[in-house]
Specification:
The protein is α/β, with parallel strands linked by helices. It has 4 helices and 5 strands. It has a single domain, classed as YqgF/RNase H-like domain (Nucleotidyltransferase, domain 5), CATH 3.30.420. Helix content is 41%, strand content 21%.
Length: 151
């Protein structure tokens, strides 16, 4: 379950720095990216098959001391959700329940096409798309923290 802000129910509201793992979920492949504990740098991590996504995420979260998950949310250009967004939300809910980590959902419109442009269309770029999703999320967190400081 989520709050209206897209945060998984039970997730903390703190803007403190965290180590985040981003997930760009697809029906065939899932791209993963991670940030440093200071939330400065998002780097592509790996691409796993969709069928192996949850065990891979669990292993990486443990190994890398991940404190939160950013799920790319594939919205339609008009902002609506379709089957792909529902799939991403189901995986996010499984992660939140199974790993006890906060899950945030980040609009991923156009990140896959940008990743293909940056990485070249010849090879899968799902991990690069995940890094772009994470960069966007981290930029929003920094902006929110600045705004909170002004209030």
């Amino acid at each position: 379950m989520q709050t209206p802000t897209g945060r998984a129910a039970g997730a903390g509201g703190s803007l403190g720095l965290m180590r985040w793992l981003a997930v760009d979920a697809g029906t065939v492949r899932v791209g993963l990216a991670i940030c440093d504990p200071e939330e400065r740098l998002a780097v592509p991590l790996e691409i796993v098959s969709a069928s192996a996504a949850y065990p891979a995420i669990r292993a990486i979260a443990t190994r890398e001391a991940v404190e939160g998950i950013v799920m790319g949310l594939p919205l339609h250009m008009g902002g609506g959700e379709g089957d792909s967004a529902a799939m991403a939300r189901r995986l996010g809910e499984r992660i939140a329940k199974g790993l006890g980590l906060p899950v945030e959902y980040e609009d991923e419109r156009l990140t896959s096409s940008e990743a293909e442009r940056l990485g070249g269309a010849k090879k899968p770029s799902d991990d690069l798309a995940a890094a772009l999703i994470l960069e966007q999320f981290l930029a929003r967190r920094r902006s929110d923290a600045r705004d909170a400081g002004r209030a």
